[in-house]
Design brief:
The structure is a single chain. This protein is an alpha/beta fold. The chain has a single domain, classed as 3-Layer(aba) Sandwich (Rossmann fold). Helix content is 33%, strand content 25%. It is built from four helices and eight strands. Strands 5-3-6-1-7-8 form a six-stranded mixed beta sheet. Strands 2-4 form a two-stranded parallel ribbon. A hairpin with a 4-residue loop joins strand 7 and strand 8. Helix 1 crosses helix 2 and helix 3 crosses helix 4. The longest helix is centred in the first third of the chain and has 17 residues. It is globular, with a radius of gyration of 14 Å. The mean pLDDT is 95.
């Protein structure tokens, strides 16, 4: 059975004024996150693990997603900030997958550019530029600690 990782960039956020960590979603960002949540709901009935940046815009995106999707375990991690190190973040994600000890898993990661692109690149070999609230679905191979990109979709492409 497969292990799927869904990597989501937060929705559109306010411009940087003072503190990047406190930037909130704009109305467009909330709409984008809602579209992404609806698409995710067509892919999975419940996330085994959700890992999210502590930054407000990522937390808000996660809340919108979880208003339409279930999650067994939600973890806020400082490894998933914009300047996070992809290899360290991947190690954390895959460690959660191993700890679940299930062969059929769905893991959600909500984070920021450029980290989301680097995560996907390190796992799959393809490093996309992610639009706000875009989602990449990867199938993970725990034995090799890598993945294959299955889907990359932005809110503008979601027709739900």
């Amino acid at each position: 059975m497969p292990i799927f990782l869904y990597v989501v960039r937060h929705g559109e956020a306010e411009a940087v004024e003072v503190n990047d960590e406190e930037r909130q979603l704009t109305e467009l960002g909330k709409q984008e996150a809602n579209k992404t949540a609806r698409w995710l709901n067509t892919q999975v009935s419940e996330f085994d693990t959700v890992v999210v940046s502590p930054y407000i815009r990522a937390q808000q995106t996660k809340e919108i997603i979880l208003s339409q999707n279930k999650a067994a375990n939600v973890i806020t991690s400082s490894q998933f900030i914009p300047s996070g190190i992809a290899s360290t973040a991947i190690d954390e994600l895959l460690a959660y997958a191993q700890a679940n000890n299930k062969t059929d898993q769905h893991i959600l990661c909500v984070s920021h550019m450029p980290l989301v692109s680097y995560l996907i690149g390190e796992l799959s070999g393809y490093t996309p530029i992610m639009a706000t609230a875009a989602v990449a679905k990867l199938q993970i191979n725990l034995e090799k600690w890598n993945g294959q990109l299955d889907t990359l979709i932005s809110p503008e492409q979601i027709l739900l």
